[in-house]
Design brief:
single chain; alpha+beta; Jelly Rolls; 2 domains; 7-stranded antiparallel β-sheet; 2 helices
């Protein structure tokens, strides 16, 4: 073989070695590459691929193993999510159930009320020593001389424990009660004939955080918290109660409630 051909072949071999070395260095860099913050496009892509590969099943496993979720709608339908599974109580008030909501009418005499409570004692599932939260929604046709409750627990059960929301006139409040006096914090001023979506996050022996859904971006935002009279206990049979009362002798008030959405750590 002529010397010039040997030289050309040697040059091609060296070039191939150089390319292999370059590829090896790139692969090594990819294996040890750290995510950059703020995230650049490469870092975002790494996170996106990792999420798509691992997180959905992991998140589902965590929720399935460690939490239970429940949804209820006190409406006219029968079955586990129907009004038939709620206990109704009233004094001068009355109820009107539809396909998507329950209307509580207070009656027209001071002290008249209507209430609905859902009891749940299956295997001591409900507890006040576990992280939990609920969402619900309500509206009222008249904000004057009204007292309303939407709480986890039983707000009108004497010595019962509860947390959630209380409405006095136009004042929407967060509320808690354990064994002492009811505690409240003012959250916002409400209007009649307006639906409000509410969320209460319960942190055992620490606090309850209250949020309201924004009408502008459909997200919940914090509006207040309470750190005293936080309910405690390993069992709780009263799941949720809805209560409406008038504090003046005048036209009956109507409170509309549609759903309760609840999640709790097992």
């Amino acid at each position: 073989m002529p010397n010039n051909e040997i030289d050309d072949l040697r040059e091609e071999v060296n070039q191939a070695k150089l390319e292999l070395q370059t590829m090896s260095e790139k692969l090594s860099n990819m294996e040890t590459q750290r995510l950059n913050y703020p995230l650049d496009s490469a870092s975002q892509d790494v996170i996106r691929r990792a999420y798509q590969r691992f997180l959905p099943e992991d998140v589902m496993d965590i929720i399935w193993r460690d939490y239970f979720y429940y949804f209820d709608a006190p409406v006219i339908i029968d079955g586990p999510n129907g009004l038939a599974t709620w206990s109704l109580t009233s004094s001068g008030g009355f109820f009107a159930a539809g396909a998507s909501q329950l209307t509580l009418n207070t009656g027209d005499t001071s002290g008249n009320y209507a209430g609905a409570i859902k009891d749940w004692s299956v295997q001591n599932t409900l507890r006040f020593d576990r992280r939990q939260r609920f969402r619900t929604a309500f509206s009222v046709n008249n904000i004057y001389n009204t007292i309303l409750y939407l709480v986890r627990g039983d707000a009108k059960g004497g010595a019962d424990k509860y947390y959630g929301f209380k409405i006095v006139g136009s004042s929407l409040q967060g509320v808690t009660r354990n064994a002492g006096s009811e505690q409240t914090v003012t959250l916002m001023t409400i209007s009649a004939n307006t639906t409000y979506d509410l969320e209460a996050v319960f942190l055992p022996r620490e606090k309850v955080v209250f949020s309201i859904r924004s009408s502008s971006d459909d997200k919940f935002f914090k509006v207040g918290a309470l750190t005293s009279e936080i309910p405690v206990g390993t069992t709780s049979t009263e799941f949720f109660s809805i209560y409406a009362e008038t504090s003046a002798t005048e036209a009956s008030k109507q409170m509309i409630a549609s759903y309760v959405e609840y999640i709790q750590k097992r």
